[in-house]
Amino acid sequence: VWADYRFDWAMNTADGSSAALVVLGAEITGADLAGAVVELRRNGEVVASGHGSAAMGDPWAALAWLVAQLDRRGENLHAGDVVITGGLTRAVPFEPGDRVEATIAGAEVAAERARS
Fold first, then answer.
1. Terminal Cα distance for the chain, rounded
2. At CB < 8 A and 24+ separation, what contacts does 47-53 make?
């Protein structure tokens, strides 16, 4: 969406945190999510890394904030709802046919970027 990945926080927020797609993997339970190291690979090469603490200091704190905001509106989360933290690594461009893999707290998730 953004030429050369140049945008400010307001543009990024308006764009839904640049989430072109989301890949769901195995459930991660009992993990220190704030300390979790995230590695993003493109075609086997590490192209970005980050930490769970990029989500408001701790993904659990981010989830608690969301729950409180929903509660203020009389809303809540339901079983099966998916909550994402937003990006924990920098944005990385992909090309058709690239293989993208992420390692998060020891769990492997992978997806192939499909574009026409």
1. 16
2. 47/92, 48/89, 48/90, 48/92, 49/89, 50/87, 50/88, 50/89, 50/90, 51/88, 52/85, 52/88, 52/104, 52/105
3-state secondary structure of 110: strand
pLDDT, tens digit, for every residue of 94-110? 889 999 888 886 555 54
Q: Which two tokens stand for residue 81?
A: 């709802």
Tokens of 37: 């190291």
pLDDT tens for 12-21 read: 666 666 566 7
What does the alpha-carbon distance between residue 62 and residue 55 come to, in Å, rounded to a whole number? 6
Q: At 71, is the secondary structure helix, strand, or coil?
A: helix
Mean pLDDT of 19-43: 78
